[in-house]
Design a protein that fits this description.
The protein is mainly alpha-helical. It has a domain of 63 residues.
Length: 180
Amino acid sequence: MGDCEKTWMKKVPKTDKSDPKRLKKDLPKVLKLFKPEDRILLVGTSRCPFESEIRVWLVLPEDDPDTQTRLCLTTKVTDGYTQKHIVTACQQVLTDRRVTQLAKRPLVASEFIPPLARIDPIYKEEEEAFKTWYAKTPLGKKEAKAAEGVTKMTARGRKERKEARKAKRERRRSRLLLEK
């Protein structure tokens, strides 16, 4: 799915006649139609993720790839490569012939390294802009907290948060009553 940021844009430009937000409603409905045994990979690519709402949709398959494959693909091997680079490498590896051989010869992470090596990674400035944007997303914030060792909110913290929300609602109601 190219330019997927358009689906979740904060405000769609009036010049865009393609109605990109239609997928925002339809995609979850379509995903519910798949069964757990269906193997689906939906990859969204974006040149400007910072133009979309800060939301991260994460759909995990029932059968995760083995730990070694996941680590190999997500660590230094893919450092500096965009999602589009990874999609291109996948397309180069998963030819019709290779797909027919999957039953006899399962994929291994090392098959993706030569196609990635032929692609120039993104520049550091671009990478920093994306990292800054990602740090503002819910998943980025969650990862930052986990890195600091804060993975669970204490019972006291939950109670304080609930009280703060309640106070905020009461302030909002008071403002609305004053405006009337």
